[in-house]
Design brief:
Blueprint (H helix, E strand, L loop, with lengths): L1 E5 L3 H10 L4 E3 L2 H6 L5 H14 L3 E5 L5 H14 L3 E6 L2 H12 L4 E6 L2 H10 L3 E4 L1 H6 L4 H15 L4 E4 L5 H9 L4 E4 L1 H6 L4 H14 L3
Parallel strand pairs: 1-2, 1-8, 2-3, 3-4, 4-5, 5-6, 6-7, 7-8
The structure holds erythose-4-phosphate.
The site of erythose-4-phosphate (E4P) has 11 residues, from helix 7.
Length: 216
């Protein structure tokens, strides 16, 4: 399972990269705005900086919702760097655009996916990644991982090539569940990735080893 970091923060991307486990980055308009990135030139420059840090795919999301505009915006994003994956929302014009990008050699990540039906459409259109938002589903009182289980099952049965990218991760357990369900990728905040590291018995065990090491 690949590990993507879900942020536009350069320091956090660098930290995850330096850990040696980073396979890519996902961003969205909210994450870019959080970093204070404003205006077309600044956006392009910021994506370039992310691509320079990471060895792997970098999802950059379109703001447009009309087919022609999505195509124009997506072409510009894809031209920034070969690592850029054009992130397209799961709407009617988005599905049409994903098919167009697929036919024209531009890789896509279909975002804002909340149902198996949407995941089937994304795969049919040829998206490289499909992004079910597990945390937001959990927040609304449903089970996000149930959707991941359904999508991975359908994709396997139907032999769809689209990779299941589990998004909207809220905690380390989401990452473990995604691995158990055979997801291809998770995209997570740095805190949940680092959360995988900790166990109190590791801390207690290490303290004892260090204490005993002094007697050697
Ligand atoms: C996916 O690619 C999105 O950027 C992201 O995972 C959304 O997460 P959130 O629900 O924490 O905003």
């Amino acid at each position: 399972m690949k590990f993507f970091i879900d942020t536009a923060n350069l320091a956090q991307i660098q930290e995850a990269h330096d850990l040696g486990i980073l396979d890519g980055v996902t961003t969205n308009p909210s994450l870019m705005a959080k970093e204070g990135v404003k205006g077309a030139d600044a956006i392009i420059e910021h994506y370039r900086k992310i691509c320079e840090i990471v060895d792997g795919d970098v999802s950059a999301e379109v703001f447009s919702t009309k087919f022609e505009d999505i195509i124009e915006e997506g072409k510009k994003l894809a031209a920034i760097h070969k690592k850029i994956i054009v992130k397209v929302p799961m709407i009617k014009d988005g599905v049409k655009a994903i098919k167009w990008f697929t036919d024209n050699g531009i890789a896509t990540n279909c975002t804002l996916v909340f149902s198996a039906g949407q995941a089937i459409l994304a795969a049919k259109a040829g998206a490289k990644y499909v992004s079910p938002f597990v945390g937001r589903i959990d927040d609304s009182g449903w089970d996000g991982m149930e959707l991941v289980s359904q999508i991975t099952h359908i994709y396997q049965l139907q032999n769809y090539k689209t990779e299941v990218l589990v998004a909207s991760i809220r905690n380390p357990n989401h990452i473990i569940r995604a691995a158990e369900l055979g997801a291809d990728v998770i995209t997570s905040p740095l805190s949940s990735i680092l959360g995988l590291l900790y166990h109190p018995l590791t801390d207690i065990g290490l303290a004892k080893f260090l204490e005993d090491a002094k007697k050697m």
